[in-house]
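pasting input
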Amino acid sequence: MNDVVLQARGLVKEFGGLRAVNSVDFTLRRGELRCVIGPNGGGKSTLFKLLTGQLKPTAGTIQFKGLDVTRLHPHEIARAGIGIKFQVPRVYDALSVAENLWLSARFRHGATGAGPIVDRVLAEISLAERRASLVGYLSHGDRQWVEIGMVLASEPDLILLDEPTAGMTHAEARRTADLVREINRRATLIVVEHDMDFVRSIARYVTVLHRGAVLAEGTMEQIRANDVVRDVYLGKRQHARG
Amino acid sequence: MTSWALWAVAVVIVSALPTVLSLFQIVQLTVFMIYSLLALSLDLIWGFGGILSFGQAAFFGVGGYVYGIVGINSGSTTLALAAGVAGAAGFAGLLGYFTFYGRVGSMYFAVITLTVTLILHQVMGTTADPRYAVGQARLGGYNGMTNIPSLALEVPGRAPLTLDPIPFFYVVGSLLLLVLALTRALVQASFGRILAAVREDELRTELLGYDARGRKLVTFVLSGGIAGLAGGLFAGWGNFMNPQVFSMFQSALVVIWVMVGGRGTLYGAVVGTLVVQFLTNYLGTASVTYTTVALGTVLVMIVLLFPRGLVPAIEGAIRRAARRRAPAPEFADE
Amino acid sequence: MDLVAVTAFGILYTIATLILLALGLAVIFGMMGVINLAQAEFLMLGAYTVLMATSHGASVWIGIALAPVVVGLLGVVIERTIIRFLYGRMLDTMLATWGLSLGLVGLVTLVFGPTTEGIATPLGHFTVGEYRLSQYSVFAILMAFAVLGLTYALFNYTRLGLVARATMQNDNMVSALGVNPARVYMGTFAFGSALAGLGGAVMAPLTGVVPTLGLAFIAKIFITVIVGGPVILLGTTTAGAVLGLVESLVAYTSTPIYGQVAMLVFAIVLLRLLPQGISGFWRRGV
């Protein structure tokens, strides 16, 4: 039981008449690397927003490390140990790379303790030579890395990655896959992705979301063999060929 | 290093001014410095917090009226000044709590602060009847509260010594420099950097664990306190306080001071206030209406030509001139 | 019974005049997103147009007919010389228009003097029981709803209105379709100014004409439009109704000043509860 780090029960999020998240149950064990896939509009981003507290669920509960975080404010949830990296990087363009990381690290370690953390993370994301560059001037891929660095610097127990390789080159995506596996040794991860190669290279357990509900869950092999998933995701054309 | 030199120069200049200026000019400059404090309070919440408040005039007025009430009733102007600061800060706390924790957008926040100021304007204007008094201090309606005591030096065991214009000038000048120094230190420390993060991307900052609403509230309370200090000093300077401080003109004037001087530099607020007030005074010798037209034109010109304010524009020009004079840097070979 | 009728009339009057005065701002701020702090001065200029007309021997009606034209043209000038450089810069627009407001008040004071001028209210009175009400105030109410209806029809049922609404939503798109967005902005701003001129002109005999006329209204009209929310015309109308009701009820039971205060306080509370304004939850439309 204390092996479970995140437990969502009956999560529902309604916007007007639309159910973006439709009665989702989600259990995550410590140290897992869960990939969440599914067609666009399936509710993946909304699910993340519910987990970080940006949105409040219409119904259902979320337990994180045994604590009921359903109604908590975003900063309280962040303090509890959930970090998120957005699909479109939300970083401080007017500040330098090091300052971005500093803000993140400072919260847990204080102004002086943050310094060493910043140095360490800069090395991990390979941006040490660019530490003084303003983030607004960096390339898209580098800005993604800065945001990953910010998440690492705050040392959360659960990290949410929303399409971490969006807009990256193949080489950058492969580096990201290595980093993700490396991070997984310290933190539990939920990764939302569309890039199937990336998913295959990191995934152990996969959840498929479709129209706001869990369509299937299982290992990568189980998902690929699942007819319903193939119909929904890949279209009946593939199914007919296979 | 250079900033220490600048501070030293500022202290020297302020100390030396009474020897070169007439008494009348010193008295004028004193009130301009009080206004600068007010502008500083806006720059803190607006230039650094990124939150436009039309309510600084309200805190100014609250500070002044509380100073008057406590000063008239207790006879201690030190207590009155402290009460003015506390009253204004408390009021800012209430207003800030109501708006920041209510998820009100920034545009609406500006409107709400303006509305509150106007409400105070209306309400204080209806207090002409003698029964509107706190203790012995009559609120006085549109004519305002009179007989407010001047700031006095209070040493325990001796009678309070009312400050003459020149000593009062020194007190105000010192307070201005002190507040300027303290707020600059504050914004350059962690507090200021996190505030800048909140200003740039509030959600992102919250997701790093920071309580953005709390930080905005603290900043707002600080700026309210500074404005209250200015209000108390103003009441002690002129010995009166009337609802004009809550007028739309006054509210917007504070914004003009900061706009002209430039946001986010703190000393820009001081420069902007001095420039606008000197200009107003100079034009005011011609006629009040010409002042309004000129001020309005100046404001439009500044917005169109120097949108970031005078101090940043001047700083930019100096930087460009320095670059042109310096030789081109050599590129190091790999 | 008569008192009820008269009070109801008074409430209707407060609501209608608030809507009439806020309409121009609903277009300029609600649709265009321009924070025009000189909007109340447009009202004032409309009033002065009527004053100029009557002082030259023409009737009030001529003044009222001229006002939207005069102020509309002024709106074109202002848009071309100041506003169009500041689109998207809300704060700068606010400050520039505040400067404009100061300048206009100053100029009018220089030309016309600072005192309040009265304009004789035409049309006489009618009686309800022992109360006398001016027929002109009925005219003002009717004008308010007529102008509201015409504006609504213009934006929803004409091609011009469609083009304007489309431009506000996506000016790149409309320019790809051959429309010049700059002209649309200019025209919409001029229309909003004309509406203000008309509103000020209609109200002129009822309020008196003074350079600082705008000061009494600027906060109210902004608050009405903001509380109204994104569905501009219907939102402003509803906000006008709600706020006007609050103001007049409190004013009747105590003093007009407390009525204003109550209205402002109520607006703050409303915004706290409905941060998007009253129409924030409605379908998007005009």
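fyi Residues 2-31 of chain C form the longest helix (30 residues).
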